[in-house]
Amino acid sequence: MYRLLEPKEAKNKRLVTRRLTTLEPKAKTTFLIAADIGGTNSRFALHIPGMKEPLLVHIYPNEEALKESKSYHHATLKPFFEKCLQEVEEWMGCSEEEMKEKVQVVACFAVAGPVKPDNSVFMTNIAKGCKIDGNEIEACTDGLLDLVVRCKLVNDFVGQGYGLLDLDLDTETVELLPGSKAKINPLGPKACVGAGTGLGECFLTINSLSPELGYECYPSEGGHTDWVSRGPLEAELHEFLKLKFGQHTRVSTERVVSGRGLANVYEFLAKKFPERVDPVVHNEFITAGDQQGRVVGVNSGQKGSLAEQAADIMATAYGAEVGNAALKFIPTGGLYVTGGLTPKNLHLIKGMDTPFIKAYLDKGRMTPLCESIPLFAVLSEDIGLRGAREFNAMA
Questions:
Q1: What is the pTM of this model?
Q2: In Å, what is the CA distance from 262 to each residue of 158, 163, 201, 286, 375?
C-alpha cells in the first residue's frame, strides 16, 4: 500500500538556480531521480525537489543498454549521471569528487514486476531476465553512483497510478464513452489498465470519511490472469500459445494484450495463413528482435493484412480485459487505459464500432454497469515517470 496526496501545482521558479560550484563547501543539495523501467525502455528524469519540470530526461533501450554491463544500474543509471554532468547547468563544471561533496540523490524506480520486501525485483519482461536491487544501488560507490543515498523500488503501475493524479483530462486523455468526465465521482475508486511491452493493472481508493488524505494506490499483476478465446480462430490461437509457452491448461492475457502479445498473434496468423504473408513485412518482423510488436503495429493499417487482423484480435482482447477491470473495481472515479500501445492504436480503441469498445461492452447483463464507468484513453506516455517523481517526493 502506498499513500500519496493529490499533486499540487508546481512552483514556477526553480528552487535551485545557481551552479553547484557556488555552494558552500559543506553544503549538500538534494536532487531527485525518477525512473520508469519497462520491458523495452528505461526512462530517467532528474528533478529539483518540488519541481514538476525535469532538468533532464533520457530514455535507454534496455536490450542495447544491458548487452555488456555487469548490473542494471551500471548500464543505465551511471551513464545517466554522466549525461547530467555534461548537460545539466547545475552540475556542469564539477568533477566527480566535487559532486560527491556537494550532491546527494534520492531515487525512485517504478519497475515492471512485483517488488520484493527486500527492495528488489526480477524483471521477466527483459530478455534473459534482469534483477534490479535498490539496496545494492544505495551501497554502490562506483563513480557518480555514490551520489545515491536512497533508491526505492515500486511496481511500475504504482507509478502509473499516481501519475493518473497528475493528468490534465482535457489535453492528455480522450473520452472513450461519451460524457465520461461528467460521470467522475471524486470519491470513487480509480483503475488503470495499460499495455506496453507487457500488460499492467492497478487501482486506487480514497477514504470517503477523510478524503483530504488522498488516494492510495495498490499494485496488481492482473495482466497475468487467464485469457479466454472468443471464437474458433482464437481457440486455435489459445492452443498455439499454450504450446509455445509450455502451458497445459492456460494462457495469460499478457500473451495477447501487449507489444509482445501482438507479435505472438501475428506469428500464429502467419503460420495459419501462409498464403497471406507479406514477404517484406514478414522479413522485417523476423529480424526485429524485441521490436516485433512495433513492426506489426506499424503495418496494421494495410487493409486485409495479417498485421491488421493481429491488431484487431489484440484490441478485442484489450477491450475485454478493461471491461473485466470495470466489473472487478467499479471505478466510478475513472477507468484509465494507458501504456504505449494505447495512443499508437487509438483507431482501434476510440469509437463505438471499434473492436476495443465492442469487447469492453460485451458483458451480457453487466453491460449497463460498464456503460456507467468513466472511461478514458491516456495519450501521454510519461505518467509512470510522473508517478515515480511524486512518490519520490513524498516517500
A1: 0.85
A2: 25, 26, 18, 14, 23
Residue-level length of the chain: 395
Q: Is 343 exposed, middle or buried (0-12, 13-18, 19+ CB in 10 A)?
A: middle
How far from 352 is each of 67, 178, 298, 327, 361, CA to CA, in Å? 44, 10, 23, 19, 9
Measured over the CA atoms of residue 49, residue 53, residue 55 and residue 57, the dihedral's sign is positive
The C-alpha atoms of residue 94 and residue 218 are separated, in whole angstroms, by 41
Distance CA 332, CA 183 (A): 8
At 218, is the pLDDT very low, low, confident or very high (cuts 50, 70, 90)? very high
240-274 pLDDT, tens per residue? 999 999 999 999 999 999 999 999 999 999 999 99
Per-residue confidence (pLDDT) for residue 387, from 0 to 100: 92
Q: Sort strands 190-195 and 335-338 into parallel, antiparallel or unpaired.
A: parallel
The per-residue pLDDT for 127 is 67
pLDDT tens sequence across 20-69: 444 444 568 999 999 999 888 899 999 999 888 999 999 998 888 888 77
Q: In what order do the strands lie in the sheet with 103-111?
A: 56-61, 41-47, 29-37, 103-111, 148-155
Q: Which of 86, 87, 123, 90 is nearest to 105 (CA)?
A: 90
Which residue do the cell numbers 461492452 mark?
Answer: 361
Bridge partner residues of 37 (DSSP) = 42, 111
Q: Which three cell numbers stand for residue 2?
A: 502506498
Q: Where are the alpha helices (DSSP H) in the chain?
A: 62-65, 72-75, 77-87, 96-102, 134-139, 156-164, 169-172, 180-183, 232-244, 259-272, 279-286, 292-298, 306-329, 341-344, 346-349, 355-361, 367-372, 383-394
N- to C-terminal Cα distance for the chain? 12
Angle formed at CA 266 by CA 264 and CA 268, multiple of 5 degrees: 70
